[in-house]
Amino acid sequence: MKLDIEQDRLAAELDALGAISQEPLPVVTRVVFTEADVEARNFVKKLCQEAGLAVREDAVGNTFARWMGENPDLEPVATGSHIDAIPHAGRFDGTVGVLGALEAIRALMRADYRPHRCIELVIFTSEEPTRFGIGCLGSRLLTGRLDPETAGAMKDRDGVSLDDARWAAGFEASLASVPLAPGYYAAFVELHIEQGPLLERHNVPIGVVTAIAAPASLRIVIQGEGGHAGAVLMPDRHDAFLAAAEIALAVEQAAQSSGSIDTVGTTGVCDVFPGAVNSVPSRVRMEIDVRDIDEDRRDAALHKIKLACEEIANRRGVQTNLEIVNADSPAHCDPRVLEALIESCKIHNLPFERMISRAYHDSLFMSRIAPTAMLFIPCRNGVSHRPDEYASPEAMAQGALALAETLAHLAAI
Length: 413
Ligand code: GLV
Ligand code: MN
Ligand code: MN
Hints:
Number of strands: 17
Strand content: 15-25%
Bound molecules: glyoxylic acid, manganese (II) ion
Order of helices and strands: HEHEEEEHEHHHEHEEEHEEEHEEHEHEH
Radius of gyration: 22 Å
Structural class: alpha+beta
Helix content: 25-40%
Number of helices: 12
């Protein structure tokens, strides 16, 4: 089969999608169910329809674009990723796995390949945790890893519930209708930028992902005592921000002291109330991200952070409320899907190396219900979650080529 990836078209579509942003280019911010997110969904759905795919959406906005196979009774083969983007991000995170997959499907169509199984492109809602504080919202619900009732009631920072936000965006059915049965898909493969430096450093075009690290996140609210920045004497203070500052250092320490470079800890959100230069901070809300490929070691780091919180709160006379938002297990990719991926790289003379994913992806959850694997392509300097994130058209085309061949293998059996 002769597969031609239309590299310039894929790059142009990525540029056009990147321009749909809540901020001027090169900054991409596309938070779930904002106007930009809805516009981006419409852009991608139109491309899918133009390619002849049948599009449907579920109650949380997960979008499914299906290419009918010759035997539609068999479980479909799926691919896909996300199009939402964290604040101040770039154009390639997630989107390469959506538009690259669409181009892979179009390349198979142009090659007159006829799939035995249906091939389905899935665009997952809110892989990023920005709005509701939890990552992989759509794929968690889809795979039954998040209770629909709890999910519907989750609120964003402005107090808007997920139910209200999705209804406003036009997704009105019950969230209870979202989960798919285990075994619904025969296989799932996700294409993504590496978001790390290894492929570029090694000059290797394809990363074959064998496992995905275990993510966890914490929300900590610290209640101290506010007051006048001039008048409250230093020995009398219970400054919530200073407690938060110590907790952030304890997060760093917990990760650094784990004994492995694979443990990482980040305090990415620290909202200070009331946020006035002449007022002692009375309340702080922190969001903390902790990950490791080893779940026990990740949990040990979480435990250290919890103990540090208690000690800091006692010493500083503040109260802390620590909530574990999520603590997920790692994913191990499926040997049969990995084999198809490796075979496809060999057919097209694409050098590859095996690697783990330190970032999480919707594949983490898809692996709970389907044999799953991922492939990475290099991105410049390993940069991601920044406006200067970049993957070359050539790199994207190589990823789409390997993906197309893999889908062809998986959908033929
Ligand atoms: C996904 O964006 C992650 O934070 O790993
Ligand atoms: Mn991301
Ligand atoms: Mn991503």
